[in-house]
Amino acid sequence: MLQPPSGQDLVCPHCQSSSPEIKAVFWGGIFVIAHTHCHACSHQHWQSLPIGHARVYPYAASLTTNQLIAPTPAKWFTEAFFKAYQAGFDSSSVSVEWIKHDSCQQVILLNCLDYLYGHALLKLFNAHTLLQNHPDWGLVVIVQPALQWLVPEGISEIWVVNLPWRSLPQRLFADLDAQIQQQLTRFDKFALSEAYAHPRPESVDIAAYTRTPRFDLAKFTTSPLQICLIWRNDRLWLPHPFWRFCDLLSKKIALFSFLQKSLLQLQKRKFARLANLLKRQLPEAQIIVVGLSEPVGFASPIVDYCHPKPDEQTERYWCQLYARSQVVVGVHGSNMLLPSALAAAVVELLPDDRIGNLSQDVLMHYPAKLQDYLCRYLPWQVSVRYVARQITALVQGFERYYTHHQVQQPQ
To answer: Binning pLDDT at 50, 70 and 90, where does residue 408 land?
Structure first.
């Protein structure tokens, strides 16, 4: 953790001198920035603190030369900051709910605000480790409403910021900063969590967040067989370039929005075919579909648990479904984070443009060979029949593989 926010954690973006003086910290939402003054070159900047994705993609805006600086630019992140900075500090009112559980004099702040659900969730997964490693500190978690139900027990305070996902990379919220600065006066000391964007899977105790323990591998063959298919409306399992072009067209140009319904029907057919192939090879299997969508309207053998606006009760029930599933199957994305953390095995369909993000959405952790067996990444161009073969082989071969490759005791 950064204790307290100090120039020791920074270098001057202009001359690379270490430890510029921090004159102020601005809590703009996703972007937490420091006003720094370098005594070596006299330049001043608004620059990122090493929190979340800014640990890998630092950024700065010079108050001396007006230069925008990104040593390792990332279009989706650093350029978003530059646009927000150039738009100026936004003075619009921000609604925040302050939930206080314990009174503490020194606290760690874990900022989970983000414009993508998966990014915010991964930051939140730092919380349990912070509670364990810093028992003498209180922990304050800053989240958006959609993640409040996942905050683990033992948190001192929850600051629920009511900002839409998509607004966060576009603006620097001055009112949010003013409110947080006022809250910080209550504490004798505060520190910032690094909010690792990709915490190690073995450090994530998923039951602490979902209140649901993950699938017990020892019961893989004795529990009723369930295979969970993860449905998405916004990233379709339609890898052919023509269908991808139609999908893009339907989202970008309102005139072609009618195409989306046809594309969803094509995806529905693929899911139905996969379910039918699985039932032929695994007749005892229960096939379910879960996803953020209106019920898709599947016929037997699929049981449809999709919901367009799940409340906390629905989200918790989904987690129970994942934890009762031997295998979860879906296209790469944040939709796979909770399923992969709770189910026994994962079969993920990886789009070409997500190859560089391999494994970032999977929170499974087993010993090496067992991990290779239970976590399978497939190019999303593979046939439905091939996906069914992979799932069938995984299920039917599990007992033999687990017996041979489970963690062995020294002889």
So the answer is: low
